Amino acid sequence: MKILGMTAAILTFVSITPTTVVADDLLQDAGSWLQVVGEGSLKVVDPGLEKGRIWLEGQSRWDNNWNNWYQGMARAAMGYSLSDRATIWAGYTLSTYTKRRQELCSSTRCMARVPL
Known about the structure:
This protein is of the alpha+beta class. It has helices at about 1-15, 100-105; strands spanning about 30-40, 50-65, 70-80, 85-95.
């Protein structure tokens, strides 16, 4: 119980400790995206595939108030319905970036605003 109390005290201290933020690190940009999704049962192909599912999706993303396109992606997935409310999915995503955005992005951090 004593360890739980100390952990709670440390977490409280960490959560209220002020964080220094440099104004140059904060960027604001209005981004937009468009998405088309199709999802359905494989029962139309074969009644025996009633629990089989398919997912098709396409997305396109813009920043700077719809002025700069920077990413597009297409997704396809196959699923298996466990119940009316639960499905297991496995799929693939093909993603494209503009060359300028790709140069500034890494696997862990991406610039919030990139002039193209």
